[in-house]
Amino acid sequence: MQPSEDAVRLDKWLWAARFYKTRRLAVVAITSGKVSVNDERPKPARTIKTNDLLLIKQGPHQLAVRILGLADKRGPAKVAQTLYEETADSIARGKKLSLQLKTAAQQVAFDRKKPDQRNRDLSRKSKRGE
Q1: Over the stretch 24-69, which tens digit does the pLDDT of each residue have?
Q2: CATH code, 1-89
Q3: Strand 61-67 vs strand 53-58: parallel, antiparallel, or unpaired?
């Protein structure tokens, strides 16, 4: 992955920085509004430069990253991690959300028993609309 000095397309950079597995997934995320550049909704071919601020929504997480380097080719993950820096506010939000998701998962109680004959019959009746 040779970092270039010029501006790079947003979809190529997201792919090279390993936020998305394919360029097509990066394009879909950009067009669906899950990525913004400097608080603007971009197109996939938008050129980005160093020090641009990206907001990337991935599931319940929202990452705010500042671009440190440019690349249009995908390379090793260690090199890709040097292309950006996550902001301190984004890291704090991520930790808080992670803690909330963990505590929510612990509070959910699952019935681990196999249903008996009566419960299976009730389930079948409710599915048929009886």
Answers
A1: 999 999 999 999 999 999 999 999 999 999 999 998 889 999 999 9
A2: 3.10.290.10
A3: antiparallel
